[in-house]
Each structure stands twice: as C-alpha cells, then as structure tokens.
Design goal:
The protein has about 200 residues and is mainly alpha-helical. About 75% of the residues lie in helices and about 0% in strands. The chain has ten helices and no strands. It is elongated, with a radius of gyration of 20 Å. The relative contact order is 0.10.
Length: about 200
C-alpha cells in the first residue's frame, strides 16, 4: 500500500472518530461517553481509536483545532487586511458558517462553549490586534475590555443564530455585527483614520 492511500485512510478514520464524537455529544455529556461507544459509532475497534487519540477530550480538542485552523487560514490569506476590524469580523462569520453544524453540536454539548475556551481567546486576540491598529487607546486594560466586549457580543449573536436555525443570511449577521462594532469603536478612532479602515 502506498503512503498516499495510507494517509487517506488515517484522515478518513480520524474524521469518522470526530463525527462519532459529535454525534454522541448531542445525546449525552462528554463525561459519560465511552471509548467503546465512539469506536462502535465510528465502525472501528478500541485499539484503532487509541492509535489516533488518547481520550474523547483529545478528539474534542482536535475538533476545536479544525475550527481555529479555518479562521487562521482566512486571516493568513489576506495579510494586509487582517489587521482591520471589519475583515476579522467577516472572517469570524465565514468560519462560523463553514463549521456551523459542528459548532451547533458543541453548543448543544455545553451552552457556555462559545463564550469560553480556546475559540473565544483566539478570536479575542485577533480582534485585539485589529482594534489596536485603528484605535487610540492609552490603556492596555481598555484595549482588552474593547476586544472582550466585541467578541463576546459577536459570539452571542452567532450562538443565537445557530440555535434558532440560521434563519437570517450570514451576510446580514456579518453586516449587523460590523455596524455594531463601528458604533462601539468610533469614539476611539481618530477622524483622519475613519475613512481608511475597513470597519463599516
């Protein structure tokens, strides 16, 4: 067997395991999910599971990493604009839409998921970098509060959007969150910079 087919088998097996965990977390708490249940759902044996992951929690961490990788790849594609708040907010929307089924299941597992943990912290840091590039804030504490406020608000909007069946278009949600961000940040942005930023 050549290495390409081996690699594809590994990718497929890991994806089957992740799909099995995502299915199970909608049915029961993570702490109640056994390796045997995951293996059965993924149509593998326990030994195969342990060849790829050490625990169910490790699978969930990789699922999160997949979501974060989507955002990072979008940001890295556009180096010059990724410092703009509007672009970051647009990419957050794109990332959430691309992974909406997975994120919905994660929220069902734990309603607090979207408000805490590594996903929120990466979004906060990305937003802080973009906010720093356009606002004149002397205090690092103020900058942190601004980015925290924006990200928590944006994630709350997307969480509600997902839970209620994604009835509005993603473009509508992105436009509204960008408008709100503009209203929040405009008093911190010097007038001469307003016309040069991609925010509103």
């Amino acid at each position: 067997m050549n290495s390409n087919s081996t690699d594809l088998r590994i990718i497929k097996t890991r994806q089957n395991i992740k799909n099995a965990v995502l299915k199970l977390i909608t049915e029961k708490p993570v702490s109640s999910i056994t390796i045997t249940e995951v293996a059965k759902s993924a149509l593998i044996n326990r030994k195969t599971f342990y060849r790829h992951y050490e625990s169910v929690e490790a699978v969930i961490i990789e699922i999160e990493d997949d979501i974060l990788e989507t955002l990072l790849s979008l940001l890295n594609k556009n180096n010059s604009s990724c410092l703009e708040v509007g672009v970051v907010l647009r990419y957050i929307g794109t990332t959430i839409e691309m992974n909406k089924d997975t994120i919905y299941k994660m929220i069902k597992m734990s309603p607090e998921y979207i408000y805490s943990g590594r996903l929120k912290e990466l979004l906060r840091k990305s937003t802080e970098v973009s906010v720093r590039s356009v606002v004149e804030v002397k205090s690092e504490k103020t900058l942190k509060i601004l980015s925290q406020f924006l990200v928590t608000g944006v994630l709350s909007v997307y969480s509600d959007w997902l839970i209620n069946g994604c009835k509005e278009s993603i473009d509508f949600i992105v436009d509204v969150t960008r408008t709100i961000a503009y209203g929040c940040l405009v008093q911190f942005i010097p007038q001469d910079k307003l016309k040069n930023i991609d925010l509103y």
